[in-house]
Write a sequence for this structure.
């Protein structure tokens, strides 16, 4: 199969079940590529430069950012993080799919920088259920839960521009839907330049499937 | 689930396995709606007007055609056949999915008349394999097989404008792909006006999933 790679971009409010769903998708499709991010934060014990992250000074990060080096970037707790664009483009060109687990701000940047990416938003069935799940995890303080719910409300307003909405009520159904969004993306003609070329030439036999 | 209906349009050259694949899709999703076609051919034994077809005179058919009554129409062996547009639009509005098993000429007309339909083209893995399958069925004369292969070559050139290409090499994989194209279509925001409204209002709880 000589198709073009898919950039699959997945966002969800905290507590919607994104991590579980991405895990299940990766179980069936372990071939998704990773890109190594750049960051200005200090390496933690055992982290290696160029493997876990590219560790950069803030000045260098900003220089790269200004030159359009990043597919997306963000500042989190005073540190800068960014995804270099060129390696992602190269993976896609080579037919390697790349998965982005990213918030709505990052996704909006990827929409600009990547063009043909597929955007999936995972929603909880309701805000009441989201709150129930956040409490049920027992991880967060009341204050954190209140903040997560405020953030969720804001993020949900962005869902409308995503390509696909996956409501995570029943996790098996949500998995089936996320999987369908990804599989369908692989069937788009623009992902199969080899097949299109063969069809144009009336020589389907030339196309390895 | 109060979503908008999906118009799923499926084309394939003869021998690509379309009938089998549509049968398997309908097994899991028996809810697809049918529209009753109009035709100028004479009713056969047991066929009832308004149930099997709307049987029309040629003059009446042409009058309706000129008035934009049909989502698509064609002349086959001297008889006219057409799909009335209004009942399809009404089914879609009511959230009923509608499946069209139709040739590329009909699909091209549906692209104009239905707007948001989803177009899937089923391809054989190669023309050599298509020929092998046509012979294997033992249904067609050499002349018919040659004609079907010529038609297939012409039809395959149209595949590039379809939304999804499903290569039917292994039937289970092809079924999974056709199914994914359909399921993904149901996840598009434009199919979920209820959900979009709830998201805009920041009131996800109002959306029945």
């Amino acid at each position: 199969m000589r198709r073009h790679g898919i950039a699959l971009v997945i966002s969800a409010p905290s507590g919607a079940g994104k991590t579980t769903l991405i895990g299940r998708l990766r179980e069936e499709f372990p071939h998704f590529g990773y890109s190594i991010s750049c960051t200005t934060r200090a390496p933690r014990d055992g982290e290696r430069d160029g493997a876990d992250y590219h560790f950069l000074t803030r000045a260098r990060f900003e220089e790269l950012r200004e030159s359009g080096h990043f597919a997306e970037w963000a500042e989190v707790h005073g540190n800068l993080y960014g995804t270099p664009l060129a390696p992602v483009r190269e993976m896609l060109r080579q037919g390697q799919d790349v998965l982005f687990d990213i918030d709505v701000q990052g996704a909006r940047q990827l929409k600009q920088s990547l063009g043909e990416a597929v955007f999936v938003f995972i929603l909880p069935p309701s805000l009441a259920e989201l709150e129930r799940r956040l409490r049920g995890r027992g991880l967060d303080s009341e204050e954190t839960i209140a903040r997560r719910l405020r953030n969720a409300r804001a993020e949900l307003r962005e869902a409308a521009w995503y390509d696909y909405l996956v409501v995570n009520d029943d996790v098996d159904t949500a998995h089936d839907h996320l999987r369908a969004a990804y599989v369908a993306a692989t069937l788009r003609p623009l992902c199969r330049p080899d097949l299109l070329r063969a069809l144009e030439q009336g020589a389907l036999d030339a196309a390895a499937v």
